[in-house]
Design brief:
single chain, 128 residues, alpha/beta, Oxidized Rhodanese, domain 1, 5-stranded parallel sheet, Rhodanese domain-containing protein, STR17/STR18/HARC1-like
Length: 128
Amino acid sequence: MSEAQRYESVDVEAADGLIQSKGFTLLDVRTPEEFKAGHAPEALNIPWMVSGPDGRTHNPQFMEQVRQAFPDPSQAKLCVACGGGTRGTSAAAAIAEAGYSSITCMPGGMKAWAARGLPTMAEESGKL
């Protein structure tokens, strides 16, 4: 981990191990629509990007939502993932910059998760 990068990048297997045995929460930062289409069980969705009139834009409430879900930065253990890696690395950097100390990022995102055959689930239409 470099001075500028305050989070660790881990592969899918390492991320799954952190979630299964080290108490990390998988923070899925994809849009709610992407999350509903298929996500890891027990994952929490806080979108980095939201749909707006001009397409996707940064979620202005992202850090507020993270702080609400994880109020103690010294106790939160987060593994951040998106679809393929770009949004996840941006979100992980923002979370780490906000003072959260146990942050990892899964650069391959949910595409890599599914490709490894790890469990996913979809939300039923019209039900959350």
